[in-house]
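Morning run. Coffee first, then this:
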Amino acid sequence: LSLDDRTLQKLTNLDYFDLCYNQLTSLSYRHFEDLINLQTFSLRDSQLKTLDERIFNKLKKLKHLSLNFNKLTSLDDRLFQGLTEIEYLYLDNNQLASLDYSIYFKI
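And here it is:
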């Protein structure tokens, strides 16, 4: 299953987005770059294996991010860079063998 890059364009006022329980295996930063007011983003219980390291770059107001119950095996150390407002980050129940602690210092 894939998501067209233009599907979410112009939804700049969206502050809550739930993509739970889907069959998406990967996502591009282009899908979400217009969601500049997003505060809660849930991708739990999907089939995500990879995430573009720039996917959250424009989501400066993001406070709650759920990536749990996916199939992620690794996370780029730049993935959460710039998420200065983040309060809750859920990564449990993935296939992550380890996490580099420096990933959190870039938030």
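The radius of gyration is 13 Å. Good start to the day.
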